[in-house]
Amino acid sequence: RAFDAHGVVVWDQTPLQHWGVEVDAPWCESVLKHLAEQQAQQQNNASNVIATHCVSARLSELKHPQVAGVLVIGGPLISGRALMMLRKEEAQEKRWGGDPSASAMTVRDGMLNPRNSFDVWKETLSGFSRPWRPSELALAETLADQFTNAFVALGTLDSAQKSAKLNMLNMLLHDIGNALSGVSGEVLQLQQAVMDKTAMDNLERLVGFIKTHLGAISDAMGEQKGMALYELIGEIQSTLANQFIAVDDAIGHMERGVIHARELLDIQKAYAQTSTQYGRKCHLAEIINDAAGVLRNSIESRGAYYLTMEDDVPALTVDRSKIMQVMMNLIKNAYEAWDARQDIMNEQNDDQEPLLIHIEVSVTSDNVVLTLQDNGIGIAPEQLPQVFNDQYSTKQRSSGVGLFSCKKLAESCGAQLSLQSEGKLQGAIATLVFPKELWA
Q1: What DSSP state is assigned to residue 114?
Q2: Does residue 281 sit in helix, strand or coil?
């Protein structure tokens, strides 16, 4: 009521909330953009209030059947939030000194006669609302200041909450890391115990001794008992040997599981440590090298990666932590795909080739394009359309955030992620595209 408005809109980049007058989000967004541009053209105007009583005067597409006047409190100048007061159109009558459509002067009896056009001429104007009063504008300025203070306080509170959550996450990851270190120690002790073949060697010597002296043993115990003892010791030796093999395999699986868990832990630690940085100027080379550095042991134990980058690649304004998360998971997918290929090669007794991950960054007129090519197992043509579906995986053991979440993370930064493959055993190429709007 203080603004004598016919409608109100709360704009917070969320589903539109409005009362009094029917408006839609595209119209509100266009109005905010137009008014912000109009204000930017006015020098030394840093006000968080924008007002007009003829919103469609210069931009016909902003014409609205019920709205002519708009008062914006906040708007694009306060984190994209705005409170919009709306006024309906009210016909206005203007008086002019002369009607231009009236006839010209006439000559009568040699004298010039004034034309009737000098009479007062009335015109009804459309597309206008009642102007916003100075008191309303002053109240709007006060509210805008209050909104600014409130948003700053909310931002500080949000940062504090995020910081507390990250501290808790780091503590949890640290505790998990300690637990994994304990498990690693136990696995190492088991490996050392299995590698100690003293008991097996003694048993093997006992079988050899019985075999060598079987005749004397048979004379002492009887041939049947002597042969039974020899066969029993032989069976014990064979059973223990198989059990040693089974235990060794199980320990190998445990070791790989612990390594796998530690890789995931390292990824989450790196993500937690960089999550406080948001929407800042970043260089792709740094992000790529940091992501590869986290996974260096896993890469170097299988092969290598190399980076090819053009000289004129611009910096990007993105959420560094999200892009790094995407890169770490793309690299992890690449060497896990190589592991799957090696399993097939081993089954077929084919020659194995080391892991090779080639990351290339290039620039076009409109995009920065990052490609990551691997020599992994590849993807069958019938599986390729499904790889970005939620809960879908081509791996028996899936980890990380997955391609579905990778794509969502990339899109939340304004980038696009795609995947190509020529088929099984042909490797794959992941492509990240950063449009020009993200260039710093």
Answers
A1: P
A2: strand
pLDDT of residue 126 exceeding 90: no
DSSP H helical ranges for 114-222: 134-195, 198-212, 214-221
- What is the pTM for the complete model shown? 0.47
Q: Is the dihedral of CA 178, 183, 185, 186 positive or negative?
A: positive
- The answer to whether 423 and 381 have CB atoms below 8 angstroms apart is yes
C-alpha distances in Å from residue 91, one per residue of 8, 23, 53, 70, 123: 21, 21, 12, 16, 10
Q: Tell me the C-alpha distance between 391 and 381, whole Å.
A: 19
Handedness of CA 11, 15, 18, 24 (dihedral sign): positive
Residues 29, 75: Cα–Cα separation, whole Å = 10
355-363 and 303-309: which strand pairing? Answer: parallel
Give pLDDT tens digits for 261-301. 766 666 666 656 555 445 678 899 999 988 888 788 889 88
- Using CB atoms within 10 A of its CB, is residue 247 exposed (0-12), middle (13-18) or buried (19+)? middle
The amino acid present at 427, given as its one-letter code, is G
Best CA proximity match to 68, nearest among 129, 148, 140: 129
Phi-psi sector, 11: left (phi>0), alpha (psi -120 to 50), beta:
beta
As a residue count, the chain comes to 440
